[in-house]
Design a protein that fits this description.
Blueprint: H1 14-44, E1 77-82, H2 88-100, E2 108-114, H3 119-128, E3 133-138, H4 167-170, E4 177-181, E5 185-187, H5 191-195, E6 204-209, H6 220-224, H7 226-229, E7 239-240, E8 244-248, H8 249-255, H9 257-270, H10 279-286, E9 291-293, E10 321-323, H11 330-335, H12 343-346, H13 355-362
């Protein structure tokens, strides 16, 4: 039933009005105290306050890393990574690990690819790494929206996951070589050692895994088609992970390799020839024709498989790079208090400041 409201207004009695004002004043004092406490904590932890965003975490400022005496300032190392708020915590850890283990960290220049301008993400990088040499480029997701086929895991279907195919089109023409790195890894060696690999006229260098069952990366429909099955004839095709690659982007451009990868993506749209995202078309074009790199540069699979992400152990041998490829990400497992043993190797590079840590610091 609708109720009628009188058009006349009622003024609170003086005691009631005084109580309302007192309560409001008390709430204002509490709010000011809380804001001041958080601001003080952020200042003491080296945080530059960014515009508020529920999607972008808060990080403490990383140390300033300087070149050693033997460094030549003109010898730049170019590293490309994708960038978005969902994986920002991993990106920050990866960047810190590269700088921390570099003899010449000031020579490292980062090229970040993102699908849209996110001011909070940009501000976060600037505040966390005030001395970082980096540039940001927009990858237009429309370039791949009609080319992506659904894979076994939704995260693999995001347009940004395909940006590495268009890397040579986005970075400046004067950049001739680039290291591409995923955001779910840490480097525990001098990245210059990977940068200096001799490509021997190849387009791409990466660790190869010839003991892996290569046939499992493609469907029965692929192998039962005589023409498609001939794709790898004359090549010793081995699996390689596209999360760690050294790419001669000049030769990539000259050879039209973006178009070659896209052609296989078009075949996938017509008939399902593989189950994963951007990896199989790379294999179809490049497998058996890359420069092999020591396995120490991609200790991959630490995130488990793509469906369940169960814990895995380290492979035997020396390690220069740890890669949490697969479903399980170390920051998520650590936050859930159900980490795998290998996740503790990632934790020292985590610059994230949790809200509970801030409250603890305040207390």
């Amino acid at each position: 039933m609708a109720t009628c409201r009188s058009s006349s207004t009622t003024t609170p009695s003086p005691p009631l009005l005084h109580g309302v004002l007192s309560l409001s004043f008390l709430l204002l004092l509490l709010l000011l105290h809380s804001s001041t406490a958080v601001a003080t904590i952020e200042l003491r932890l080296g945080i530059i306050r960014k515009p508020s965003s529920v999607d972008v975490p808060i990080f403490r400022e990383a140390p300033a890393f300087r070149n050693g005496e033997t460094c030549d300032a003109d010898e730049k190392i170019h590293i490309a990574m994708t960038l978005d708020s969902n994986y920002l915590r991993g990106t920050m850890a990866a960047v810190l690990s590269v700088l921390q283990h570099s003899t010449c960290p000031e020579n490292v220049e980062f090229h970040f690819l993102w699908t849209r301008y996110e001011p909070d993400v940009f501000s976060s990088i600037k505040s966390t790494f005030p001395y970082l040499n980096f540039k940001v480029y927009r990858f237009d997701p429309n370039r791949v929206r009609g080319k992506i086929s659904k894979s076994i895991r939704q995260a693999l279907d995001q347009p940004l996951n395909y940006a590495r195919i268009y890397l040579a089109d986005m970075i400046p023409a004067e950049v001739k070589r680039v290291i591409y790195l995923d955001s779910d890894l840490v480097v525990v060696d001098d990245i210059a050692k990977l940068w200096q690999v001799d490509l021997e006229e190849k387009i791409l260098a990466a660790p190869e895994y010839c003991q892996a069952n290569f046939t499992t990366y493609f469907t029965d429909e692929f192998w039962s088609d005589e023409e498609l099955a001939k794709t790898f004839e004359g090549r010793r095709a081995c699996y390689f992970n596209t999360g760690v690659m050294v790419v001669d982007v000049e030769k990539w451009r000259e050879g039209g390799y973006t178009r070659k990868v896209e052609e296989w993506m078009a075949v996938q749209k017509q008939k399902r020839i593989y189950h994963l995202g951007s990896l199989p078309p790379f294999l179809l074009v490049m497998a058996g024709d890359i420069k092999g790199v020591d396995h120490r540069w991609n200790q991959h699979g630490l995130g488990g498989d793509n469906l369940e992400g169960k814990c895995r152990s380290l492979h035997p041998g020396p390690i220069s790079l740890l890669h949490w490829s697969g479903k399980g990400k170390p920051w998520l497992r650590l936050d859930s208090r159900k980490p795998c043993t290998v996740d503790h190797l990632w934790a020292p590079y985590d610059l994230f400041i949790s809200s509970s840590a801030i409250h603890t610091f305040d207390e």
